C-alpha cells in the first residue's frame, strides 16, 4: 500500500519519501512536503483509499479557495443554494 499526498498541482519529478506507521497508526509527513503544501499543526485533512493507495488531502485555505471558485456560478446563473431554494418553492406550490 502506498501513501500519496495530493496537491492541486501535479508535479513532475516528485521525490519519494519513506515513512513508518507508528503503533498508534500515526504517520509523519516529511518537513519538505509540509512546507511545500503549507501544512501547519492542526491543518485538517481527509484520508481516502484509491486503488490500494492511501490518499491524504489537506484542507488548506488554498484548497478551500479552489473549491469555492469551482462552485461559483457563472455570471447570470443562480448559485446552487438559490437553485435548490427555487426548486423547493416550486415543490411547495405543487403540494398545495
Describe the protein.
By secondary structure, the protein is an alpha+beta fold. The protein is 35% helix and 17% strand. The chain is elongated and about 60 Å long.
Features:
96 residues, alpha+beta, Pemi-like Protein 1, Chain: D, 3 strands, 35% helix, elongated
Q: Gyration radius, to the nearest Å?
A: 20 Å
Number of domains: 2
Round the mean pLDDT to the nearest integer and report it: 79
Rough shape? elongated
Q: How many beta strands in the DSSP annotation? A: 3
**Describe the biggest sheet?**
3 strands, mixed
CATH architecture of the largest domain: Ribbon
Question: Helix/strand-derived class?
Answer: alpha+beta
Discrete helix count? 3
End-to-end Cα distance, whole Å, is 56 Å
CATH topology of the largest domain: Pemi-like Protein 1, Chain: D
Helix content: 25-40%
CATH class of the largest domain: Mainly Beta
How do you describe this structure in short?
With 96 residues, the chain is of the alpha+beta class.
